[in-house]
Design a protein that fits this description.
Blueprint (H helix, E strand, L loop, with lengths): L5 H19 L12 E6 L7 H14 L4 E6 L9 E2 L7 H5 L1 H9 L4 E5 L2 H10 L7 E5 L11 E7 L27 E5 L6 H9 L6 E14 L4 E4 L7 E6 L4 H9 L3 E2 L4 E2 L8 H14 L3 E5 H7 L9 E11 L4 H7 L4
Parallel strand pairs: 1-5, 1-6, 2-4, 2-5, 6-7, 7-8, 10-11, 10-12, 10-13, 13-14
Antiparallel strand pairs: 3-4, 8-9, 8-14
Helix pairs in contact: 4-9
Amino acid sequence: MKIYLRPFSFLYEQVVGVKNALYNRGVFEAFKAPIPVVSIGNLTVGGTGKTPLTDFCLKHLVRDGKNVAVVSRSYRADAEAPCWVDVSHPFGARYYGDEPLLLAQANPDVAVFVGSTKWRTAEYATSLSQKKFDLLIVDDGFQHRKLHRDLNIVILDATETLANYEVVPEGRARESWEGLGRADIIVLTKCNLADEAQLKALEDKLPKNKEILHFAYDIQTFWNQKEQRRLSRQDLKGKKIFLVSAIARPDVFEKMMREIGEVSKKSLHYRDHHQYTDSDVRHIVEEFEKSQCDYLVTTEKDAVKLRPLLPSNPALWSASLEVVEQGKKGRLDELIRQTLR
């Protein structure tokens, strides 16, 4: 079936190539913010683990005493004009977007801004007179050429097949491998979940003149917001687990959870960034109760959307994703901090 999509992928690739060439030659002008800008983006259309890595970077920068702002797009959310994410909003995920709200909740010392256009949101964030930022992190900014960046970090999912790196609609890539020429740093995520041959095949496709970093993703704890209680991985060992998620790669989430407990075959998966409704929640509760599972588990991204809608029972547990550097510790943080000099 994919071979019939190849002409459309070729056409899409040509359009993207022309756009990039016009920016490279200065025909299209990019907005340059008055502070350093770091983009954390990807080559494919989601599911690479970008939000956990962004959170990882933010925590290191805050620990180093940096005043950081994040710019994100209000994807499948209500906010259109640039605005500062307010974590007290009763339906913040619906208004600002699930990933921006999650980043804001997880990093209270970081200002997170959203809007329909990233460069305009960056302009708004850096124009605020009451706040002076040291650095601007652009969430999913690699293809947003209208905003100049001082450092381009590109994430590749080590568990993704090479076939999926074909340009859409044949594959999942937003642009071809040649686009990695604009990257300053290439980060391979979920390396611990990819087999050795798969990881080597991906590494062989990468430019030889780029800094390549490896990260492992793991689930070690589970958090219950209403009970303010945390469970360890061992607490769920061998238990029956019902999963619900609306993410791009539910297969990876399931794989990680199957290493912990017995995952129900009736687990529910919705489209990436799906905004849950009351009807969805009723269905989730019914299916969970019918499954007779011990735990109802979701991702951190889904939890920010489900918590306002779910009743106190059943208890909802969010899987806390741990991001671990493989190789030289602190190298990514070091490279980001170099933009501040």
